[in-house]
Each structure stands twice: as structure tokens, then as C-alpha cells.
Sequence to fold (318 residues):
Amino acid sequence: MITYIPYPTWISPEIISGLPIRWYGLMYVFAFVTAYIVILYQQKKQPIEGFTSDDVVTLLLWGIIGLLVGARLIATTVYDPTHYYLSHPWMIFWPFRNGSFVGLQGMSYHGGAIGAAVGGFLYAKKYKRDFFEIADLVILGIPLGYTFGRLGNFFNAELWGRVTTASWGMVFPYAEKFSTRLEWVREIADEIGLPYESGMLVNLPRHPSQLYEALFEGVLLWLVLWFIFRKRKTFHGQLLSLYLIGYGTVRFFIEYLREPDSDLGFILALGKEQDPDALFLSFLNFSMGQLLCLIMIIIGIVMIPLLKRRNMIKGKKR
Fold:
């Protein structure tokens, strides 16, 4: 009995064959448009004094530029153990390879978050706005926009999860194949009903972790922020803090189902069993993404009392 799902053959990274227009890039457009609509709606319902729809556009431009720069820089430095881009920095934002347009392949969420924050801070500085007030406005549009980004990863058949025998496990076409000479590979293949011959390489089903992230870090996190915390906000920066904690926590646990970057592996491996990376073997083995998520959680927790105090001090001065 076959208990896995083949990756849909009708899905291709390219929207139109032969043209340099890919689903991942289009998902970024959907993400920015969705974030803009949500932010604009929020501004109309709970407006920031003196902040217009034109200001929203300007703020988003600053944030988007920062996001793209930060996402690319972190992806090509922290997540590139070959150090190719450090020795060829002019290639970081060069979208061509061997005379063909390939876009910017490789973007880091955490780098994008840092870049967007820097862009927002510079905007607030230039236009004399409270950074944490506008951050709370913008953060409500981030999770839904993020959802489209992860859907783009799914359409690209990339960032797959670890090997699983769950009935919803999916065989991604570009995932690493494993030799049936390995006992654990044969056991999984037998369990899911995957035919094989001795010594051949097989593509095992993976957790569709892109869809997990789209659902939990995107849709569900947005629902919590929008319907539970949005109208209960008591100080500027509260929603930003809760987002950092919420995203960091959810992503931390989903990372256990997502295969670490092949060139990095586990950044902190404390579990007795560490190999292969494609299997979940221990809660004590941590990826780069998990360590960055822990930093997000800590920052979010520390920000809450500090921003509460800041709000009280500003209130007294008035």
C-alpha cells in the first residue's frame, strides 16, 4: 500500500516556460500587495495621527528595500559556508549566471526581518516618527505576506522537510536521494510501499514544511495577532514584541521537521544521534534557523518590559 504523495507534476517554478518569470518572484509581489492592503485597512480603523495612505506607501518602500537587501546579504554570508560571495561581493545582487537571467536565488527570512527593521528605523528617523508605533502597524501585515513567500518555496519545490512515513509525506523532485544499501532507507521504503531494487537510489517522501510554515507562521499567527491582540494593545511595540515571540516559537519547532541546510547541518549538535540530517533523531540537535529563532524570542521577551516602561515615561512627560 502506497502511503505518500508525489509532488504535483503540473507545478513548475516557471510561470511561462522560457520566460524569466517564476512563481517565487510573483509570490513576493503578492506578499507585498497583501501586506499593503492589511496595513492600509488597519491605518483606517485605528489611524496613527498625521499618517496618510501616501505615508504608508513610503514606509513600505523603505521596508521592502531593507528586506530585500537584508534577506540577500544574510543568505549569501551566514548561510553560505563556501564564502563564495564574501570573495565575490559584486555577485550578491547580480541576477545573471552564465549569460542567463536566474534572479536572486537564496533569500533569508531572518535577514529580511533585520533589513526591514533597519529600513523602518531609518524611515522613522528621517520623518520623525515613533518607530515602535509604525512597527506595530506594519507587523500586522507581515504574516499574511510571509504566507505567500512560503507558497513560493513550495512551487519551487525547495526547502523541503525531513524524511517521513506520514501519509501526507511528499516526494519532492529535487530532494536528495538515498541508497537502498542503507538499512534505514530500506525500512522506510518498505513501510510506505515504495518499490526499489537493491543498491538503487530512492527519493523518499518529506514533510511539506513549506506548507506547515505558510499555515502556522503565516495564517494562524496573523489570526492570533489580528483577532486577539490587535485591539488589546496597551503600548507601542507590543505587537512587534508578540510577533517576534510568536514567530520565533512556531518556527523553532517546525525546524525539527525541516531538513537543515545541507552545507551547514546542525550548528549545535548535542544529541547522541546526529546523522543523517534528513531524519529527526533528537530534540537536542539545532539548526541555524532555530538559533536565530531563539534570538528573536529573547529579543521579544526583553522588549516587553522595556517598552512598557518607555510608554509610562512618555505618558508622564505629557
User: Anything to note?
Assistant: The two ends are 71 Å apart (CA to CA). Residues 5-51+129-231 form one domain. The longest helix spans residues 288-317. The longest strand covers residues 5-6.
